[in-house]
Automatic annotation (TrEMBL):
UniProt family annotation: Belongs to the major facilitator superfamily.
Keyword Transmembrane helix: yes
Protein name: Lysosomal dipeptide transporter MFSD1
Annotated source species: Prochlorococcus marinus (strain MIT 9303)
Domain Major facilitator superfamily (MFS) profile: 40-451
Gene3D superfamilies: MFS general substrate transporter like domains (1.20.1250.20)
Length: 451
C-alpha cells in the first residue's frame, strides 16, 4: 500500500511546526533562567522608585508649597490632581506603545519627562505652574508601573506573575518612604527646592540607564505573541480593541474594585495622610509623616504576600475579596480613632497598607486571561480606572474638609473627617464590586526543551 504524497507532506509540515514551537518555548525557558530577568526588573523598577518619590513628595512639602503659592487646600489639591489628570488618560496609549514597541523605547523618554516636571516644580512660586509641573510628572510617570509589569510578564515565567506586581510596588514604596520622613529632614536643612533639584538630576541619570541597559523586546516573545493570534502586518486597531474592552463586564468590575481599594494609597498616602493625622489625631507633622510611610510599607508587603500566596494556591479572587473587606473595616477603625496611643495608630496604618496590598491582584487576574499581544492595553485600562479616580477624589477630599472653614484657617478634626469619609464610602463600594469579579488561575505555558 503506497502512502499519499499530500498526506506525507502534511505530516512533515505538522512535524516541522511542532519542532518550531518546541524550539520557541525552549528559547523562552532558557531566557527566563538565571539572574538576567532579575537584573532587568531592578533596572526598570528603579524608574518606578523614582517616579513614586516625585509623586509623593508634595504631600510632605504641602505646608511650604501652600505658603509660597498662597493657595488654599482645595486649590492645592486641584493643582496636585493634575498628576492623575495626565497619568490616567495616557494609560491606553502607553499600553498600545508597549505592545507595539516594547519597554526600552517607551520608558527611557518617559523618565526624562518626569525629570523636567521636577525641575519646573522646583523653580516656581505659582500654583498654576506647580500644576503644570505636576502634569508633566504624571505624563512621564504613566509609563513606570506598566513598563515594569510588562517587562516582568515577558522575562518571568507565569508562576512568578502573581508575586512580581508586589515586588514592583515594593520598589515604589521605597521611593515613597524616601519622600516622607527623610525628605522632611532634608527640607528642614536645605529648603524644599534643593531635594527637587536633586530629583531632577537623578531622573536624567535613570533615563540614561534605562536606554543603555534594557534590551529590545526578544524575538522569541514576538513569536509567542503570534501563537495568540498576533499579526504584525495587520494589528488590531486600538479603537476596536478599546471597544472590546469596554464591553467586558469583568474587566470593569476588576478596574473599579481596584480603584476603590487603592484610595488609601492614592489619596491618603500620596497627599492628605500627613494633614489628616496631624489634625484628626493631634500628632506632629513628623510623626504623621512617619505613620503615613507605614501605609506604603504595608502595601508593598501585602502585595508580595498575596501575590505569592495566589501563585501557590492558584486562586486569586478569594484573596482579592478578603483584602477589600478587611481594608474597609480598618479604614472605619481609623476614622473612629482620634485620641488613641501612637502604637495603635501605627498598627492601624500598617494594617491598612497590608490589606490594601491585595489590590495588585486585579492586574494579575487581568494578565492571566489576556492575550500576549494586547496584554499591556488591558493592564493599561485597569490602571487608567485606578488612577483616574484620584483626579476627582484628591480635590474633593480637600474641598469637603474646607466646608465651614474660613480661608487661611485649619479645619477641625470633625471637618477633616468629612473628606476622609468619602474615601471610606468608596472603599465599601469597591468591596461590593470585588465580589462580582471572575476568579482566574496562573496562565499555563508549555515549555518543552527541543533536542
Amino acid at each position: 500500500m503506497t502512502s499519499n504524497p499530500g498526506e506525507s507532506r502534511s505530516i512533515q509540515s505538522q512535524s516541522s511546526a511542532q519542532q518550531r514551537i518546541s524550539n520557541l518555548h525552549g528559547q523562552a525557558q532558557r531566557a527566563r533562567r538565571g539572574w538576567r530577568p532579575w537584573i532587568l526588573f531592578l533596572v526598570c523598577s528603579l524608574f518606578y522608585f523614582y517616579e513614586f518619590f516625585a509623586r509623593v513628595a508634595p504631600g510632605v512639602l504641602q505646608p511650604e508649597l501652600m505658603r509660597v503659592t498662597g493657595s488654599s487646600q482645595g486649590e492645592f489639591g486641584l493643582a496636585m490632581g493634575m498628576y492623575f489628570l495626565a497619568y490616567a488618560p495616557s494609560q491606553l496609549l502607553v499600553g498600545r506603545l508597549l505592545d507595539r514597541f516594547g519597554v526600552r523605547a517607551v520608558v527611557a523618554p518617559a523618565a526624562l519627562v518626569v525629570a523636567l516636571g521636577c525641575l519646573l516644580f522646583a523653580s516656581t512660586n505659582n500654583v498654576v505652574v506647580l500644576g503644570l509641573g505636576r502634569l508633566m510628572q504624571g505624563l512621564g510617570s504613566s509609563v513606570a508601573y506598566l513598563g515594569v509589569i510588562y517587562l516582568a510578564m515577558i522575562w518571568f515565567p507565569p508562576k512568578r506573575h502573581g508575586m512580581v506586581p508586589g515586588l514592583t510596588v515594593a520598589m515604589g514604596t521605597l521611593g515613597a518612604s524616601f519622600a516622607q520622613y527623610p525628605l522632611l529632614i532634608l527640607t528642614k536643612s536645605w529648603g524644599w527646592r534643593v531635594p527637587l533639584l536633586v530629583c531632577t538630576g537623578a531622573g536624567l541619570v535613570i533615563a540614561l540607564m534605562l536606554w543603555k541597559l534594557l534590551p529590545k523586546r526578544p524575538n522569541w516573545f514576538v513569536e509567542l505573541m503570534r501563537e495568540d493570534g498576533f499579526d504584525p502586518k495587520s494589528p488590531q486597531p486600538l479603537a476596536s480593541l478599546i471597544k472590546e474592552i469596554m464591553r467586558d463586564r469583568n474587566i470593569w468590575c476588576l478596574s473599579l474594585a481596584a480603584a476603590g481599594l487603592y484610595l488609601p494609597i492614592s489619596v491618603i498616602g500620596d497627599l492628605w495622610g500627613v494633614t489628616f493625622l496631624h489634625i484628626h489625631s493631634g500628632l506632629s507633622t513628623g510623626l504623621s509623616s512617619l505613620l503615613t510611610t507605614l501605609i506604603f510599607i504595608g502595601f508593598a508587603a501585602g502585595g508580595i504576600a498575596t501575590g505569592h500566596l495566589s501563585d501557590h494556591l492558584k486562586r486569586r479572587k478569594i484573596l482579592f475579596v478578603t483584602g477589600a473587606i478587611l481594608s474597609s473595616v480598618i479604614a472605619v477603625a481609623i476614622a473612629l480613632t482620634n485620641s488613641a496611643p501612637l502604637w495603635w495608630n501605627a498598627m492601624l496604618m500598617i494594617a491598612l497598607g497590608l490589606t490594601t496590598g491585595s489590590q495588585l491582584l486585579a492586574f494579575v487576574m487581568t494578565a492571566d486571561v489576556a492575550k500576549r499581544h494586547n496584554r499591556a492595553v488591558k493592564l493599561a485600562f485597569v490602571n487608567f480606572v485606578v488612577m483616574v479616580l484620584p483626579v476627582f477624589i484628591q480635590p474633593a477630599v480637600g474641598f469637603l474638609a474646607q466646608i465651614g472653614v474660613a480661608k487661611g484657617l485649619v479645619p477641625s478634626p470633625g471637618q477633616e473627617l468629612q473628606g476622609y469619609g468619602l474615601v471610606v464610602v468608596l472603599m465599601f463600594i469597591s468591596t461590593g464590586l470585588s465580589l462580582c469579579v471572575k476568579d482566574t488561575k496562573p496562565r499555563k505555558e508549555k515549555f518543552v526543551i527541543a533536542h
